Design the sequence.
């Protein structure tokens, strides 16, 4: 079976590789400038070569999940397709390009023009990420007539219902909450309470990935955070990197020996109050419903005979879904909203 070149153009990471590969390469979809090396631009994963990654200045080709700076995006694609990253022979290999739902026609035309004219692509398929997630789920579960795909990424979260392999347009919805909102909110909280980190997006995104989790009972966890350690088993210390002896920070409990020479953050209720935005966007003045309500709204927009199948076949994709506790909390909230007659099953594919 011939392979295809698959490029998932995410706003935070681009996932790229030939279809026969075991796993994709993750390339940051950005160009970065560093204070320590002002004459050089770091494209994608070249940031690993930077000696001091503090105070990085980001040049982002995408805003709110849509391509807005074509020169930057083309530079990132040029690097990805170069021999230093993941080259492709488009004369023989078809290209599958994944895009978000509701992409503008002008952006679709621009992408097609670049790949056909600049990269001389012979076969090109542009498709929403959720369509392929549903296709893969249906291959593994051939008896499932319906599927509900939740794609929670960097810029926003989509929920889309599929019935007999076809997406229902009226049951495809979006909320403007994703990993970027969480990282920015975490930066604001830490900057107000402890240390000015408003320019440390790279580091604070790592703090979010290493420290944060989705609470199953926010009231109980907030009450626990008011206690002292060890009764408070949520509080942690995050040792910040200095980019000389330590490239990435790490989490430790309070009973471990103190690290004197390194800066550190005390992470308490921030660990779960930040991801709570996914379920209650109004907490940060975003006038939209949370993911659980969005799931219910999409299912209720479908014919009644399909609803039980949709609740039983919920599949999640996107990097934000990797937060610990996300699936359990989503199940709990959807279970509380859905009618008792419906069974609920949520699948998070392995990385």
Sequence:
């Amino acid at each position: 079976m011939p392979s295809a070149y698959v490029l998932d153009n995410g706003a935070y990471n681009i996932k790229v590789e030939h279809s026969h590969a075991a796993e994709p390469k993750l390339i940051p979809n950005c160009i970065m400038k560093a204070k320590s090396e002002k004459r050089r631009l770091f494209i994608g994963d070249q940031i690993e070569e930077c000696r001091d990654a503090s105070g990085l200045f980001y040049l982002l080709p995408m805003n709110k999940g849509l391509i807005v700076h074509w020169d930057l995006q083309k530079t990132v694609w040029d690097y990805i397709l170069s021999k230093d990253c993941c080259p492709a022979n488009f004369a023989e290999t078809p290209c599958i390009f994944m895009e978000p739902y509701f992409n503008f026609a002008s952006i679709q035309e621009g992408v097609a023009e670049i790949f056909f004219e600049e990269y001389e692509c012979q076969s090109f398929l542009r498709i929403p990420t959720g369509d392929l997630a549903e296709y893969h789920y249906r291959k593994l579960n051939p008896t499932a007539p319906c599927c509900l795909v939740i794609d929670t990424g960097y810029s926003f979260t989509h929920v889309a219902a599929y019935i007999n392999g076809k997406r229902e347009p009226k049951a495809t919805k979006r909320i403007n909450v994703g990993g970027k909102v969480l990282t920015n909110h975490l930066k604001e909280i830490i900057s107000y309470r402890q240390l000015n980190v408003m320019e440390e997006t790279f580091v604070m995104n790592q703090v979010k990935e290493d420290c944060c989790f989705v609470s199953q009972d926010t009231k109980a966890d907030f009450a626990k955070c008011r206690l002292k350690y060890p009764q408070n088993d949520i509080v942690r210390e995050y040792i910040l990197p200095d980019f000389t002896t330590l490239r990435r920070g790490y989490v430790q409990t309070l009973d471990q020996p103190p690290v004197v020479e390194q800066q550190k953050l005390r992470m308490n209720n921030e660990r779960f109050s930040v991801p709570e935005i996914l379920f209650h966007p109004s907490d940060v003045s975003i006038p939209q419903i949370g993911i659980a309500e969005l799931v219910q709204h999409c299912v209720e927009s479908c014919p009644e005979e399909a609803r039980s199948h949709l609740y039983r076949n919920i599949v999640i994709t996107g990097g934000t879904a990797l937060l610990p506790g996300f699936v359990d909390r989503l199940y709990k909230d959807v279970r509380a909203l859905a009618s008792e007659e419906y069974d609920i099953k949520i699948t998070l594919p392995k990385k």
Observations:
- The domain at 5-122 is CATH 3.30.420.40 (Nucleotidyltransferase; domain 5).
- Residues 161 and 167 are 6 Å apart (CA to CA).
